[in-house]
Amino acid sequence: MTPDFEVYATARTARPGEPHGLPALTEISRTAEAHGVTGLLAFYHHRNPDPWLVASALLGATDRLVPLVATQPYALPPFTAAQMIHTLTVLHGRRIDLNLITGATGAELRQVGESLDATERYARAAEYATVVRRLLAEEGPIGFDGAHYRFEGLRMNTPLAPGLRPRVFLAGSSPAALATARDVADVAVTHPEPVDRFAADYARALADGPRIGIRVGIVARPTAAEAWTVAREAYRETRASRLTVALRRTSGSDWSRRLAVLATDGDVYDDVYWTGAYRADRGTLPLLVGGYEGVAGYLARYRAAGVRVLVLGNTSTAEDFGHVAAVLAELRRG
Predict the structure, then answer these.
(1) If you average pLDDT over every residue of the chain, what do you get?
(2) How distant, in Å, are the alpha carbons of 34, 237, 258, 260 from that of 243?
């Protein structure tokens, strides 16, 4: 879409109660590819379709798209992840990227008896990334003696050519997340705060570190008035949603807590950054709302702060991708 940013969208799959259809997934993947998107994020949640099977479907439906597979270490051993990556890469001749997550949903962590605290989960993620990388790069058997994984003479015959090895994305904004990202990530990803806070906090902490990515939604139209009309119609808060957001101010997740504070303290920041989806309990990502030029200008400020990867969360139709393309075209001209 643009030389300034690599753009990933999200492979929206059916929510609980909706029909689970391959045609809809195929349509979004082909639409994304037609608009020059690098890849699609496949979510991990207990109630979502398995992201590895979603990735397989994406590869079968497209020619160039890179699956970005959300991977939760408690759910899949690192050697199994390496096998999956190797298999899909060999079958399709395409890179598979790995989005390591540590679990922001307390209910899901409790459901599986997860006993590690957030800092320990990031330490496990660092070991996980190290083991997966070694298995996909080394010919011989590997040994590993960590706090969370131990292997002796592990041989899987899964090395890949350098250009086909996965890039590791790491999600999070806490001190533990930032330290882990500096150690093992190719791309550090977060739901960003308004750009000045983001530049002074998250981006500064990762200076000279991995590439920086932000996960946002974009609601853009030719004029700001049109965009705000669409946004406010799509995301209407209720009394119940306001209570939910207020409770999240004490969340154990750093990024959820930060966004909850932003959402309860205000609504619109910098005339573009909007917490409306969060306030409506319709997602956890901030939205950039405005005319094409205004949203492009705000993205330019994130770019100046060091952002090089966009992971879009509310882009699924040809119309959505067309509006994003118009923003990025404006960014190029600027």
Answers:
(1) 90
(2) 41, 10, 16, 11
